[in-house]
Amino acid sequence: YITDIYIERKRQSFEVDSGAGYTLIPETDYARLNLKATLRKPSTLFRSYTGEVFTPIGFVSVEVEYQGRKSQEEMYIVPSKYHPILGRIWIRHLQINLAEIDKNNTNLSKSDCFAIDPIPNIFSEYKDIFEPKVGCIPNIKCSLKLRENAKPTLIKHRIIPYALREKVERELDVLEKTGIITKVNLSDWGSPLVVIPKPDGNVRLCVDYKIAVNQQLQAAHYPIRNIDEILNNLRNSKVFCRLDLYKAYLHVPVDEDSQTIQTISTHRGTYRMNRLSFGIKTAPNEFNRILEEILQDLDGTMSYFDDIIIHATSREECGKRLIRCLDRLKANDLHLNKDKCDFFKTEIQYLGYTVRYNQISKCQNKVEAIEKVPRPKNADDVRKFLGMVTYYSRFIPNASTLTYPLRKLLRKNYKFSWSSICEAAFIKLKQEISSDRVLVPFNPNLPITIACDASPTGIAGVLSNIIEGGERPVAFVSRSLTQAEQNYSQLDREALAIVFTVNKFYNYVYGQQFTLITDNKPLTRIFHQDSKLPAMTSSRLLRYATFLQNFNYKVQHRKAEEHQNVDFLSRSTHHQKVPGIETLLDEELQVICDQTINQIST
């Protein structure tokens, strides 16, 4: 059985094991919780059900809470290959009712509950792909396409400090020996090598393709998978594995012309790059296309750039899917970063989100990073803060209106001035990010509702699934009204909110039966699919009604006092009593989000 315990006010999932005396948490989960407790040396040994005896890394004393009941308990930190296990001591002290947990869980087999050390077998059976080296995908050649009139450009190498030269040359020798780069005497192309010192004293070699190459490349048009689609596909899954590819792009060979285009200029001369290089602007799209082709027919397996997630409803099924994926990676000579992989987790961090059985929440370390952001001092600070916040906009009611005072500071030729309105928005956004609001993956097989509302300055909506008789939010959407739209009647604004929300959730509700909820009673007749439109209906409402004819819905009126969830979304700036907040279209938010998506999910 699986249940949640709050450790120092931070949620953690455990497998309930009344056969275990102590509570154990894997090292990776312990690091994620970022507890301030003192780690103490243990004197206890543990034995798994397979007979393996191991020493825990340490133990801490922490405050734990379950359904309002609190206790000070000891928690043992164990290697990451083990599962979080809730033992008898915590069960007794927190008065946990196992029968109650049983009602909310599907029975797991004995192997699910106690098989806590299958990972070493995987590492031994697939030893090759867990070696930290770069393979080469067979039977494929990636080709970079240049724009018309593109000209070869050679940029002089950058000076390497003498203290780093030996390390840089050692790295270049390794790359040349493994065939990733080849020394060339003459080249019309050349982009400078960039050396980045690493915390461990070594160096990372990068290339600045911005001037010589990226400006002359044709755009890659392969679509990147939508993150919402990935998260929603995880519904009903209880066990997860995450695989991280080792130096992913370098596994992809490129054709001869592309090798020349990617030539590197260094203090030792020029090198031709034989693999797809990090820094090429089309590399993410190209690599995504290739990896999706490799994994496309594997059930329960999805990729987003170099991150692969495997999910299933049971540990046994997840294991089978993992083996099929590892076989496929091995056949294509793709290698994994062992230290960044997670196996058979009931809760996993993926793409900046924490995912567990039918729940999606924000990663705690990302939330804490946002909480610690100091008050912006210039437009660049504002842009970075908005990038972090808008990545989690699906959790934030009325995000567009809340962020408006800050986005206003990004306008061209706008003098930066931090006002009380900006301060109020800054604080409110941090509060919204810090909330414990949890979303659910969209399930088309459950009843669907869309609730909408409008205020004089904004429109908003929420998509929900009906689960056990209650509305559970899947995502929130909102935008501010333009100056022209603010002049609409309240009826028209409410209608616009409906059309906006349905259009935003088009991929979810098209072809599905759903309930459209509004607190505006006249609209329930105007948009009722079985009623004729009133003779005096305005042309705007006629257009809206025509758009909604494409969908299969029933409209439901809900009194304003019962409509608070979405009503708050469109009116939140009013409740904050922040005067003078203007509004505008929210297209720029997506731009900011796109620019920071990789940064926050790395």
TrEMBL record:
PROSITE patterns according to UniProt: RT_POL
Residues in Reverse transcriptase domain copies: 177-355
Keyword Hydrolase annotated: yes
Keywords of the record: Endonuclease, Hydrolase, Multifunctional enzyme, Nuclease, Nucleotidyltransferase, RNA-directed DNA polymerase, Transferase
Entries under Pfam families matching the protein: RT_RNaseH_2, RVT_1
GO molecular function: endonuclease activity; RNA-directed DNA polymerase activity
Protein name per UniProt: Reverse transcriptase domain-containing protein
